[in-house]
Design a protein that fits this description.
The complex is a heterodimer of chains A (about 400) and B (about 475). Chain A is an alpha/beta fold and about 400 residues long. Chain A contains 13 helices and 14 strands. In chain A, strand 3 (about 75-80) and strand 4 (about 85) form a beta hairpin. The longest helix of chain A has 25 residues, at about 275-300. The radius of gyration of chain B is 24 Å and the shape is globular. Chain B has helices at about 5-15, 20-25, 30-40, 55-60, 65-75, 80-90, 95-110, 115-130, 135-140, 145-150, 165-175, 185-190, 225-235, 240-250, 260-270, 275-285, 300-310, 320-330, 350-365, 405-410, 415-425, 435-440, 445-460; strands at about 195-200, 205, 215-220, 220-225, 315, 375, 390, 400. Classes of the chains: A alpha/beta (about 400), B mainly alpha (about 475). Chains A and B meet through helix 5, strand 7, helix 8 and helix 9 of A and helix 19 and strand 6 of B.
Chain lengths: ~400, ~475
């Protein structure tokens, strides 16, 4: 068996394009397109009830189908004609009024799937409901970026484990909860010792070299993020919730000029089959208050213009309430963008009347394919070819101000 | 038999050689070892945890909706126990090959199971046919309640077809994607599968009233086909044999296919009428299997990694929930593949956090330390106590029986013992030398030196390869 050390010396360095999956082969290797634009994704896991988030308070069908769960007009925070925020979302009101929120109704996809796992996979991989893709839409964005050594911290998921959305075939984001903790872990003397023995990472495609390369990147990214995290302390008060702390973390990294383009966060618990009002309310409050602090912080530090926040859930919930004061899995749903550079501000499209003909077996029919939203973000915000990443062309939506 | 090749066989056909087996097996030749693998796996041992429904169909039908919900809830809650039963089998069973194949078929006939009784039945079907006949296996799994429900076949009725089941049977279980069938074939197959559903107690039932008895045209032939006919026709197609052999090759030999071997082995597999044992015997007895470029190149899946450590160290976790948490944290939970296409193998297992976690686990277990990591939250947002390696106590504490390792490797201080450690734990060259290990353990007594050496060796990326 030839020694691995010999192999490293004699193997040729594979170029980035040789490692890319077939359909990206013709992708022109873009130069570093990161112009300081940040994308923040907040995934609401479980199936957020859009109808009780942005409440259609003038709609009779809504009240008829939700005798117990419908939010009354007097309890909503009115933001537009016939639409009000769930009162727990006070945090979003200022953002909406400032023209920094774009609300899309009935976002979904053909042949929707109402299984959490399946639908979340569809959203995270940007696939059709008939395909099983094994890479995330943002992961494929990382792959297509074609930088020779794209650092792992270019896309961060605030969690202990990396989800599918930021996993590409070759390039992957990095999961991190706490820069300090990650840095300490990377300094473990066993791991340091092993890395020191290895030598310089190569671009070869062997499994072993892939692991050493990943290890080296993790260590250097951990160090980088730790140092970055010490640069800037936010002066804004954040709520003490899980999302509050995470968004504070993200904001401090953004404001310290960290070279991260994508931040992925999630908030779980939206699967409100029973006793929805309180649970949903608590989650919305956590979300709204955390986001409000985040936006304020970024604005104070002149970062809001360069930040875009997408909030989505894997499906909405049924129009009619069930027998347990809750709602069951639905289909199309509300989705919203927030940012300091929106072209389309406020309500993007109307919610249908919610009469029988507007529904697909009791669920909201989709009007906008979620991949159009992705295409919009990829083309206008991340300035990359969305067709290569999504597999086909989707019409964009005019949501984001041209650069 | 050459040690590295022996270990290669046991890493692929089983879950790794235990130290107590090394000396005696190595003294035997390849033929003996292969025979040993098959003989040890002859017996079928169904899982009978007693956690299933334990009710007759009549009793189930008499339950009120609320009682039914309670029972379902309980069935779901018990799934982790079934997971542990399975992983413990992988660790302890003498029938390593049968367990390996059961695990392989789980990833091929990938299905997310929601209740203990459907999960247990599904496992038992895979286990029973694992080394038998692929046709029998295909037909049996296709009638498992868990599979039919997962692929929504209870919604597939005459006049209201649901193609999901038919599509996946063709795309993933038999012919492979876009391999000579049309969308129409899928639709016609779906019609043939109408009426295939399961009773509340998990038994398969053919509901005549839901079945479309009409004429169908499938893969160029016409007739009043039913589900079994479709499966037979898929088996009659040689491409199914090739597809299965290719999958087995990728899993057991190498990610890159060798056309010549595939052609020969597929032909044999087809002509033996899909006999699995002869196929595996062909593979494991070929020189091709033992080629240098096939050894130590496969990144262990999370379950492989956990079972492998447990066997090599003869270990027992003090809190078995640790085994569940580690599955969640590393991204592979038995009975919960991400979707019907199964888990993606190879480099897909590796990202910064999963790699750093893998590299940290052996040392934490050996020195009874704790690691804090949380797996992905459930959609309901509820903590169920099994996804996280938490903050309390030494969550990876385990009892390790070092004796077999000591005896087998004749570990004394000095070069000979340390070299033996490298060649046992690693299938590739170690990143450091015995000199390095001696320096690393310079002032330690024999016992501690062994533990530290093993911990260091298992902490390197090389240990992730099997």
């Amino acid at each position: 068996m030839s020694s691995r050390r010999d192999f490293i010396k004699t193997s040729s360095l594979a170029t980035c394009s040789m490692m890319l999956p077939g359909f990206l082969f013709n992708q022109q290797c873009a130069s570093n397109t990161y112009k300081g634009k940040k994308l923040v994704i907040i995934q609401l896991s479980g199936g957020n009830d859009g109808l009780n988030t942005f409440v259609p308070y003038s709609n009779d069908n809504y009240y008829r189908q939700r005798q117990h769960l419908a939010i009354q007009q007097k309890d909503v925070l009115q933001i537009a004609d016939g639409i009000g925020l769930n009162k727990e979302l006070e945090g979003l009101r200022g953002i909406f009024d400032a023209g920094d929120l774009s609300l899309l109704h009935a976002v979904g996809y053909p042949n929707p799937n109402r299984s959490h796992f399946r639908s979340m996979d569809i959203w995270q991989t940007g696939s059709s409901s008939k395909e099983y893709l094994q890479t995330g839409w943002l992961g494929r964005y990382l792959d297509a970026n074609c930088q020779q050594n794209i650092p792992a911290h270019h896309a961060l998921e605030i969690d202990d484990t990396l989800g599918l959305a930021v996993k590409g075939k070759i390039a992957k984001g990095m999961a991190i909860k706490n820069p300090g903790r990650l840095f300490r872990q990377s300094k473990d003397r066993h791991l340091q010792y092993i890395q020191d023995k290895y030598g310089k990472p190569t671009d070869s495609v062997s499994s072993l070299d892939y692991m050493y390369k990943t290890m080296a990147e993790s260590t250097s990214s951990a160090q980088y993020l730790y140092e970055q995290s010490k640069i800037f302390r936010s002066k804004t008060t954040y709520p003490n919730s899980k999302l509050g702390k995470q968004l504070k973390q993200v904001s401090e990294l953004i404001c310290s000029g960290t070279e991260t383009q994508v931040y992925y966060l999630s908030l779980a618990g939206f699967d409100t089959h029973a006793n929805q009002i309180n649970q949903h309310g608590r989650l919305l409050k956590q979300y709204g208050d955390a986001v409000a602090a985040f936006v304020k912080d970024l604005k104070n530090n002149h970062q809001w213009e360069d930040t875009l926040v997408l909030t989505f859930s894997e499906f909405g919930r049924r129009l009619a309430e069930n027998g347990s004061r809750g709602t069951d899995h639905g289909k199309a749903n509300a989705l919203w963008l927030m940012g300091g550079s929106l072209q389309s501000q406020g309500i993007y499209n109307e919610l249908p009347e919610l009469a029988a003909e507007d529904l697909d077996d009791g669920d909201l029919k989709w009007q906008i394919d979620f991949r159009q939203v992705y295409a919009e973000i990829l083309e206008k915000w991340l300035q990359t070819d969305s067709k290569a990443i999504l597999g086909k062309s989707f019409d964009t939506l005019g949501l984001i101000r041209p650069a | 038999m050459d040690q590295r090749k022996l270990q290669h066989l046991y890493h692929r056909a089983g879950f790794g050689l235990r130290p107590q087996e090394l000396i005696s097996y190595q003294q035997q030749d390849r033929a003996w070892n292969i025979q040993n693998l098959f003989e040890s796996s002859e017996q079928i041992h169904p899982l009978e945890t007693g956690l299933g429904l334990n009710m007759s169909l009549r009793e189930i039908k008499d339950l009120s909706p609320k009682e039914r919900q309670e029972i379902l809830k309980d069935q779901r809650k018990q799934l982790p126990s079934l997971n542990l039963s399975w992983i413990n089998r992988m660790i302890n069973s003498e029938g390593q090959l049968r367990e390996r194949m059961t695990f392989f078929w789980h990833n091929h006939f990938a299905c997310r199971l929601k209740t203990v009784h459907t999960a247990e039945s599904y496992y038992n079907t895979l286990h029973k046919h694992a080394l038998g006949n692929f046709g029998d296996l295909l037909k049996a799994v296709s009638k498992e309640a868990g599979m039919l429900r997962f692929l929504n076949n209870q919604q597939n009725r005459k006049g209201h077809p649901n193609e999901n089941f038919a599509r996946e049977v063709m795309e993933l279980f038999t012919l492979g994607r876009d391999n000579g069938y049309t969308e129409t074939d899928i639709q016609e197959a779906a019609r043939a599968f109408t009426g295939w559903t399961a009773l509340p107690n998990g038994e398969f039932i053919f509901r005549r009233r839901q079945h479309d008895f009409g004429k169908k045209t499938f893969l160029g032939k016409s007739g009043n086909f039913n589900g079994d006919n479709i499966l037979d026709m898929l088996l009659e197609d040689r491409r199914t044999a090739t597809y299965i052999v290719e999958k087995i090759y990728k899993y057991f030999v190498h990610e890159d296919l060798d056309k010549e071997y595939i052609t020969v082995w597929s032909k044999d597999f087809y002509e033996s009428n899909y006999a699995i044992t002869p196929l595996l015997q062909n593979i494991f007895s070929s020189n091709h299997f033992y080629k240098d470029e096939h050894i130590g190149v496969k990144i262990k899946s999370p379950v492989d990694f956990l079972v492998n450590i447990s066997r090599m160290l003869n270990l027992k976790m003090e809190n078995e929930k640790g085994l569940l948490a580690m599955q969640h944290v590393l991204g592979q939970v038995l009975f919960q593949p991400p979707n019907v296409a199964g888990w993606v193998q190879g480099k897909a297992w590796i990202d910064s956090s999963s790699l750093m976690t893998r590299l940290s686990i052996p040392k934490a277990i050996i020195f009874s330390e704790s690691i804090q990591r949380e797996g992905k939250m459930s959609f309901s947002g509820q903590e169920d106590g099994i996804r996280n390696l938490g903050r309390q106590g030494k969550n990876l504490a385990a009892t390790i029986n070092w004796e077999p390792l000591i005896e087998t490797l004749n570990s004394s201080t000095g070069e000979q013992g340390l070299n033996s450690l490298f060649s046992y734990f690693l299938q590739v060259e170690s990143p450091f030398s015995t000199k390095d290990l001696l320096a690393w353990t310079a002032n330690d007594n024999k016992e501690l030196a062994l533990q530290k050496s093993v911990a260091l060796i298992m902490s390197c990326p090389e240990f992730q390869l099997g």
